[in-house]
Amino acid sequence: MLACALAVFVAGCGGGSGGGSSIAPSAGGTKTADASAATVTGTTGPVALPPAAVASNDPLVIESKVSSGSNRDIDPFRARSKADSPPPRQVVLPSLAPEARSVQKSSSAILGLPTRIGVARNVDATATVAKAAGMMGWSPTSTGSKISAMRFQASGAQGIRLGLLVESLPLGGMIRFYADGADKSYEVSAQEILTTIQRNLDAGDSTNAARTYWSPNLGGEAITVEVDIPPGTDPDSVRLSVPTLSHVLVDIRKIDSIQKIGEAGLCNLDVSCDASYSELSKSVALMDFVGDGTGGTVNGADYVCTGTLMNDRVSSGTPYFLSANHCISNQTVASTLYTLWSYKSASCNSTQVSPALAIMTSGATLLYQSAQTDTSFMRLNSMPPAGAVYAGSSSFAPDLSADVYSVHHPQGDLQKYSWGDYLGQGSCVSGGCSSSQASGANFLRVSWILGTTESGSSGSGLFTKMNGKDYLIGQLYGGYASCSNRFGADYYGRFDKAYQAALFQWLGAPPGNVREPIYRLYNRRTQTHFYTPDPAERDRTVQRSSEYSYDGIAFYAYASAGVASDPVYRFYNTRTGVHFYTINAAERANIRNTLPWYSDEGMSWYASVSAQNQAVPMYRFYNTRTQTHFYTINATERDNIRQSSPQYSYEGVGYYAWLSP
Q: Model confidence at 661, in pLDDT bands (50, 70, 90)?
């Protein structure tokens, strides 16, 4: 059998132990949240430091950088095939009671709380797997797949975020979300959803919140979810429920919605009215995320804060992102994040949103959080839009009376700016902040001369200027400034403290051999997968063939030998039109000598034959129906396949790769 011929040097056919739950639990157990501690977080233990680099926490000044927009992911918004979309089953929730419609807002930046703009609502009709299965009528499509659709309406909502509680999804499955009347839908592969869930589990959260995938907010009072499964797939392999949705009270993309609820105060200053903030504003994003019941949030409610794209010492282009710990303090919440870039007025005091507005919906990987300096440091899971600015930073303590300024989103409004004085250090404890003379104080105290901050500004960067350039020195915790209290002090977590404690590992690392993403695509006709490190090849494949859909980033590996010196070879099977990958030189030689219909395409990337440098197993399967191989680094996906796809023979660990760059 071909499977044995190819697997003889790696693992016995069907090798490995069986069983396991559909969602692989992490060793970390249940969710833990220690507000007093600072933690370096990530998948399978601490996040790896930049490869082959030894970083120092000595103070450093980092310059800004403009994003070229290269290596951006494929646009998840795709034209809908309305002919294949079945009439959706309907779930309708009544309007909220008047007392439940108020947005959690404050004239000042609330100390240690994000701004709530949505209400969690229970959905009884789809609250369990059994109830959801009863709603999911399946219809055939023109391509032979099966599709199910459910429409959720929350009367009076300005937007909806659906919470899909996932037990299992089939290989090759695709989930789509669309608003009423939309010509495009938001597509996310089953692989990407399972990767998100596994990331949450690996970070130590085994609650239902970790197993919930949250849709983007597409606007309006209704959203439809479609589940599309490949030909021959048993619909029973789809095990999900929708027990909760977030009823969004504000359409943050419409000025009239903001104004109707009396958002940002009149003393706020439009960033588009001062050209000196033009570049800085391109590093600032409005954050939209779903709470999980920790840190004062409500599980399933929608929130907004502000964050900043950060450059590193070597300008690697890695999308590091800084905000406040009281906004995002754990991986489960980071996974729900989407960001709005250039969310500002089209011109000075205009009521039109800038045409440069761009939205990223792929969430983030939490790298470090600290309640001590109110720091949340993440890596966005997709690249920022072209023209976005990676902000510069200074890990030196600022000079007393230095001019400081900030660009932020008060109450989730369009970008505003504030300018004022640094007054000295501050101390913040539960319930309040005050000035401090202690040398180890963790906060910076600021008074505004122009503008102010408000709830929603939380997490925004505090900047100072040196030699005409902008450098971040802190992020907003909260304070007492408002339009009615112009000289009230605001407090910012000290960036220099966070940098010396942990951020130097990423931002201050010297040049090294950096890992690159390996992209995964699914061929709906052959029901096989294609892997490539080349974004141009990825894009050409999707654009030239309607048979391929993009599954997202499968894993990370090296483009050249160094930390990992074991090449992974790629073959093309001229009989099946499918690629095969192996790290085993003996297996490669055997194929070249005995299987002439396999064309050797050379080395694709470098990985490892052992678990070194925090590499994790790459699991290998053989599909007895298609006579092709499949590879996944995701333990959740591995267990799904072993439980519900008997045509896949598990061949064990093929090699080792990485979950992060």
A: confident
What is d(CA 91, CA 319) in angstroms, rounded to the nearest whole number? Answer: 38
Concatenating the DSSP letter of every residue in 453-503 gives --TT-TTPEEEEEETTEEEEEEEEEEES-BTTBTT--EEEEEHHHHIIIII
Q: Rounded to 10 degrees, what is the CA torsion of 191, 195, 196, 197? A: 100
Q: Which residues contact 311 (CB under 8 A, 6 or more apart)?
A: 62, 63, 64, 65, 320, 390, 391, 392, 393, 507
pLDDT digits (tens, 9 = 90+) for 274-319: 999 999 999 999 999 999 998 889 999 999 999 999 999 999 999 9
Model pLDDT, residue 344: 94
CA distance 360 to 340: 7
Per-residue pLDDT, 51: 45
Helices 635-644, 190-202: inter-axial angle, 10-degree rounding: 120
- β-partners of residue 118 are 248
Instruction: Write a three-state SS string for 317-375.
Output: CCCEEEECCCCCCCHHHHCCCEEEECCCECCCCCCCECCCCEEECCCEEEEEEECCCCE
| Burial class for 593, CB neighbours closer than 10 Å (0-12, 13-18, 19+) | exposed
CA-CA-CA-CA torsion sign (361, 364, 369, 375): negative
Check: CB of residue 242 under 8 Å from CB of residue 132. Answer: yes
Backbone angles phi, psi at 444, to 5 degrees: -105, 135
Q: Pairing between strand 566-573 and 628-632?
A: unpaired
Burial class (CB in 10 A: 0-12, 13-18, 19+), 589: exposed
Coil/strand/helix, residue 237 = helix
Give the sign of the dihedral formed by CA 476, CA 479, CA 482, CA 486.
negative
Residues whose CB is less than 8 angstroms from the CB of residue 85 and which lie 6 or more positions away in sequence, other chains included: 147, 149, 226
Q: Give me the torsion for CA of 373, 379, 381, 382, rounded to 10°.
A: 120
Q: Which two tokens stand for residue 311?
A: 């450059």
**How far, in Å, are 151, 194, 294, 653 from residue 16 at the CA level?**
41, 22, 38, 9
Contact 366, 331 (CB under 8 A): yes
DSSP 511-577: P---EEEEEEEEETTTTEEEEES-HHHHHHHHHH-TTEEEEEEEEEEESSSSS--EEEEEEEETTTT
* Digit-coded pLDDT (tens) for 266-275: 789 999 999 9
Residue 626, judged by CB atoms within 10 A of its CB (0-12, 13-18, 19+), counts as: middle
Which helix (H) or strand (E) covers residue 200, if one does?
helix 190-202
pLDDT value for 90: 97
CA-CA-CA-CA torsion sign (284, 337, 42, 531): negative
In the three-class reduction of DSSP (H, G, I as helix; E, B as strand; rest coil), residue 154 is classed as strand
| 543 burial type by CB count under 10 A (0-12 exposed, 13-18 middle, 19+ buried) | exposed
Residue in this structure with the two tokens 């993309």, named with its chain if needed: 253
Sign of the alpha-carbon torsion through 258, 264, 267, 268: negative
Distance CA 232, CA 617 (A): 29
